[in-house]
Records
---
Amino acid sequence: MYFWGQKIKTFHSMLQPCLQFIQFMQRQFVILFQVCGIVGRAELLCTLFTWLSVLSYNQVIHAKNLLHTCVAMFGCAACVTIAMLCKETGITAIGICAMYDIVIANKIYPIDVINFFLCKNSDKRFSNLVKYRATILRLAALLLVAIMLLSLRLGIMGFSTPKFLPVDNPASFMDNIFLRILNYNYIYCLNTWLLICPVWLCFDWSMGCVPLITGYDHRIFTIVIFWLMFGAIVAYTFIPRKDKTSRYITMGLTILIIPFLPASNIFFKVGFVLAERILYIPSAGYCLLFVIGLQKFSAQFSLPKASLLAYAMLIMLLFARSWVRSNQWRNEKLLFQSALNVCPLNAKVHYNIAKNAADAGNIVLAKLEYQEALRLNPKYVQAMNNLGNLLKDIGLLPEAVNLFKEAITLQKDFATVWMNLGIVQSALKQYEESEASYFTALQYQPIYPACYYNLGVLYLERKQYDKALKAWVKAAKQKPTHKQVWTNMILLLDDLNMTEKALKTANEALKFIPNHASIYFNIANILGKKGRFEEAEIQFKLAMSKNPTDPMIYANLGVLYHRWNKLNAAEEMYKKALQLKTDLHSARDNLQRLYSLKASIK
């Protein structure tokens, strides 16, 4: 953008071979894409390697010997491969390279291609093929690379397309093919509008964000106007006038259209309605067309100063929009609120606002937003699950059970809901139902340490200690860093007077969670009860080093010193515990007993 601002007075010098524009885009694409919601590095890396592949292919075109050609072609293929591995749309770089070779390097116009196929003189056709022999070989190499990469990609996917839900892309699931095509075209209009005027920016466009066209709708006129304007631009490239402008427009349309094809729903269904990130590469084609149009406008009406002023105002406007959008990405709350302003009918937006509010402790707002998400999408099982958890936390257990059961009806294999249902049933003392829910969750998701942990807690409440230990052992095997599992096992073994096994379990836990203070704390308590004061003291001090702000560590070390008859050290520990937590009754009571003991000794 800055480059254009400096060169606005010399539009003709900007319309140099398209390679210069691509080099410029490589340097400036980050600035251009700030108007879109950047949700990850994949699209940016894909864009970068797409332009690098075009630059490498330019070296193939101008190579002076076979070695140079092979090296440059290998570099181009490598960049395309990396671009595709970053994002599937990266493979469209091959189409851009092919069109660059045809239109820019060889100056072949669209009308020439039509005349070639309409030509009935076979000798003339053959002579044309011979003339462009090197170009045909390069294009054949590109085609070979494309076939290999497509085979690789399809092989990774198991030669099957991904499965999506109707809420992800409602238009793709419409039975009426005419209405489906009509909605696809309206989505093309919205993508074009986002390029021209990036005002409606949203992190997610699914779940009713864009209402479907199901009959007569004023939006149909938008589609008609779009195709009239776009068709006029395409038709211009077929006018039999061979100049640079025609070739640059063709190249601009190529960069605009080809990278967008994978997201067009033409070849396969995609899992989104709109996604601003898919416009990263096409935006380069739009920018090229915009520059050409501005140059034509300035030359036609002889208004270079007015064009410069209008362009400067546009740059300032887009800069301001970029600034605002960047600020909205600073935190989740701002991002989700901005999405609500754009897509108030999107259930996922309300879901994310509710989740963010719940994390912040705003239970009232979270409950209202989850309910709104379910009103907009009554089959939103994730919202049901989260709202059920929210109701469980505030003590509305029967309501939570009803929500979990409704979610299970909609999605029977949702293991998380089964586990949450089991937790609520356990809280309601419905132990048999709770156990059945946990087992169902494990049936659908065998590797589920959180479920095994909660199953162990259920068995503990039912005093089935052997089963509790077995469940926690399985949880620890599946997730060796699960702190609460190890802590519960150590405490239960200690309560069952299996102290040696408890110590062995604690030492096993330290192999996986060596910085967890609770393990050292429990070891110290066990050793202290066995009268192994020196060893216990070491463990208490290790626990302090891991968590120096836990008052219970100081209080229990004080008890150890108290029993060890190190009264001054015990007094010091009790006082430290009370400094950290003034209402720690156990430390206060023990300190009073210590003072009484000292007084009796005197």
---
Amino acid sequence: MKKRLDKNTLKDLYGKVSPFEFKDKLIALANLNKDRFKGTVLDAGRGNPNWIATTPRQAFFALGSFAIEECERTFSLNNLAGMANKKGIYLRFINYCNVNSSTKGVTLLKDIIDFSIREYNFNEDDFLFELVDGIIGDNYPYPDRNLLHIEKIVNSYLMKELGCSTTYNNEFDIFSVEGGTAAMCYIFDSLVHNNLLNKGDTIALMTPIFTPYLEIPHLPEYDFNVIKIHANEVDENNNLTYQYSREELEKLKDKNIKALFIVNPNNPASIALTNECIENLVDVVKKYNEDLMIITDDVYCTFINDFKSIISYLPYNTIGVYSLSKYFGVTGWRLGTILLHKNNVFNKLINNSPNKVNINNRYKHLSLNPEDITFIDRLVADSRKVALNHTAGLSTPQQVQMALFCGFTLIDRKNEYKNSTINICKRRKALLFEGLESEVIDNSMDASYYTEINVIDWSKKFHGEDFSNYILENYTPFDILYDLANEYSIILLNGDGFASSEWSFRISLANLNDNFYFIIGKAIKSLLLNLLNEYKNNEAAIEINNAINL
């Protein structure tokens, strides 16, 4: 183990493997030396939040208890029960709530259900039966894309959080999937299966971006030609804003670019696009590349007030990807969605394809008229190799839990939960920068789920260009990561693994207790001050040698 973790061996790996794979090596190194640092490894490379939404889970378990009673009403024999009966189920639910009013989760469950019935004019028994049958999980998902009532609740939640106008209500289709990662895989595959992208085609990535979006396009089955649209704008103090200049966005005028992939707010800095930046993008697309396919991953959108997704500006061109994982602390549940407007460029491109006969042949066993199958339904079929389309769809208990999370926020008119999660992230960022003895730049587009620190920029700002040049000439970003892990048991991720600046490091603000961020800030500052002292001693030695030589 020690041989595999020596500095030279790790240095050979650096930049050749994913930042997440390299992180595991650093964790192993930090564990060997953690006793130096109070026996704790501070893994700020991990994006998993250390909070959970409690009350929607309580509502879920309360619903589960009611659902079991409903099944036992049909018949009960030792460890066996029947399947729930729809007739009269809503009145029995009301009675259950009255009897169990003091049970945690029951009040919220009733509030979500009553809100949904009023808001969407649901038939009471139909809706309750869908929830009960869904949480029991004794039937295949039907329809396979989304359970009918649940789709309306999830749709409303997405419209709210993605900043879509109410005029879009019921104009989007939702495909619930096994987390945002499954959404990514399904979209890449279906784009290829439908010849919307072919091997060697040109796509664009708005960088920096989540590492898999950099890695997937180069897999042998895709081998896409990748154009990077890089966030290059700076503010009046020369701080990177993570916005895109008009010049960068105009790369998209090239109609050879067939698809654009965006993470917004971005990863690793979790900064959202400004309205001005989005409007420039919209202008380029509408004037010069009107058939551009856009895929936007908006998982961190809920950590910004009044967020506006690309899909709210360009619904015709855009597929939305959203995962509930970060906001509700449900990475283990695997709850994600794919969102697509009913009128979209993907359907148009399939219908106009010169190869549409061969494309449609893939789906011929699903319909006598496979040409009528929309792209969203092709996504569903492709997720199960088409032949298993009849068993497609996210498990029904997962869909029920998703509906309860979404319903919980829809009835939270004061956004108390949203404000709580935002405040956690903002507070931790403030503590990190307090430890660094540096000021946080105020930015309404900053989700503060992650942050980036550029060591060279920081060194230049506080100690001058000569010192930053000394680091550049004598060290590498790997040295910083290695020393933080080896000497302080602190794990960060290298920003260039996300196509960000070479000397930037991503710090997750989501997964450690508040006080640890102050410690991380102090440790980074301590490491850099050690380098500063080394630099000063080196300069002093040079001066002495020069004096002697004179």
